[in-house]
C-alpha cells in the first residue's frame, strides 16, 4: 500500500487523455488499492488515475459517511443519463476551491470490475455526480472548465498568488 502524489491544477499532465485498460491484472489491482488509500487519506470521495499521473482509465470513489463502501470503475462509460442537478464540487487536484456545477442527476455506468468482468450500475445522488466528475478527469477535463472564463481566471490568479507566498523563489525562477 502506498499514498500517491496528487497532481494539482494547473499541472498540464491533468490534461492527458487516459488510455483504456487492456488487462485487469495484479498491478492494476495494486494501483486501485493505492488510489483508495490516497483518497481516504486526503480525505476525498473520488479519485481518477489521471490525478496520480497514471494515464489509464480507472477511477475510485466512496461517498459513504463511514468511508467503508469503495467503488472501482475500470474503462467506465456512461451509457444513459437523466435529469440535471446542480451541486457544489471540489477536487483533490484543486484544493481549497469549490464551485457549483450542473450534471446529470442519474446515470447508468458500464465498466469492468477488479475481477475484469463487465458490469452495469445505476447511480444517483452524490455518487452519480462524483463518477461524472472522475470520468471527466480521464478525458483531461476539470470541473473548473465548466466555470465562466472570468471565474477560472480569478482562480488561476489566486493559485499563482498562493504559490508565490509559499515559495518566494518561484516568481524569480519563472523569469
Ligand atoms: C469529486 O472530490 C467531487 O478542496 C471528488 O481541500 C467532489 O474528493 C465530486 C477535497 C464533490 C462531487 C462533489 C477537496 C479535499 C476533496 C479540497 C474530492 C480539499 C480537500 C475533493
Ligand atoms: Co477531481
Short account of what is shown:
By secondary structure, the chain is an alpha+beta fold. The chain has helices at residues 26-41, 125-138, 149-166, 170-173; strands at residues 46-48, 58-61, 71-82, 85-89, 99-103, 106-112, 118-124.
Can you tell me about this structure?
With 175 residues, the chain is of the alpha+beta class. The protein is globular, with a radius of gyration of 17 Å. The protein starts with 25 loop residues before the first helix and ends with a helix. The longest helix is centred in the C-terminal third of the chain and has 18 residues. The site of 2-phenylethyl (2E)-3-(3,4-dihydroxyphenyl)prop-2-enoate has 14 residues, from strand 4 and helix 2.
List the helices and strands and how they pair.
Layout (H helix, E strand, L loop, with lengths): L25 H16 L4 E3 L9 E4 L9 E12 L2 E5 L9 E5 L2 E7 L5 E7 H14 L10 H18 L3 H4 L2
Antiparallel strand pairs: 1-2, 2-3, 3-6, 4-5, 6-7
The structure holds 2-phenylethyl (2E)-3-(3,4-dihydroxyphenyl)prop-2-enoate (QAP) and cobalt (II) ion.
Measured as a percent range, the helix fraction is 25-40%
**What is the rounded distance between the termini?**
40 Å
Residue share in β-strands: 15-25%
Rough outline: globular
Q: H/E series, N to C?
A: HEEEEEEEHHH
Query: Which stretches of 5+ consecutive residues score pLDDT under 50?
Result: none
Task: Specify the biggest β-sheet.
Answer: 5 strands, antiparallel
Amino acid at each position: 500500500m502506498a499514498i500517491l502524489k496528487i497532481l494539482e491544477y494547473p499541472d498540464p499532465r491533468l490534461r492527458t487523455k487516459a488510455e483504456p485498460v487492456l488487462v485487469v491484472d495484479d498491478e492494476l489491482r495494486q494501483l486501485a488499492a493505492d488510489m483508495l488509500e490516497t483518497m481516504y487519506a486526503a480525505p476525498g470521495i473520488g479519485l481518477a488515475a489521471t490525478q496520480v499521473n497514471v494515464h489509464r482509465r480507472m477511477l475510485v470513489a466512496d461517498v459513504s459517511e463511514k468511508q467503508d463502501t469503495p467503488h472501482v470503475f475500470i474503462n467506465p462509460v456512461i451509457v444513459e443519463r437523466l435529469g440535471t442537478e446542480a451541486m457544489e464540487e471540489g477536487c483533490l487536484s484543486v484544493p481549497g476551491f469549490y464551485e457549483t456545477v450542473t450534471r446529470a442527476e442519474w446515470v447508468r455506468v458500464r465498466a469492468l470490475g477488479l475481477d475484469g468482468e463487465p458490469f452495469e450500475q445505476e447511480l444517483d445522488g452524490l455518487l452519480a455526480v462524483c463518477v461524472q466528475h472522475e470520468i471527466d478527469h480521464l478525458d483531461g477535463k476539470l470541473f473548473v472548465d465548466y466555470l465562466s472564463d472570468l471565474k477560472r481566471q480569478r482562480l488561476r490568479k489566486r493559485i499563482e498568488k498562493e504559490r508565490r507566498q509559499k515559495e518566494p523563489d518561484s516568481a524569480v525562477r519563472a523569469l
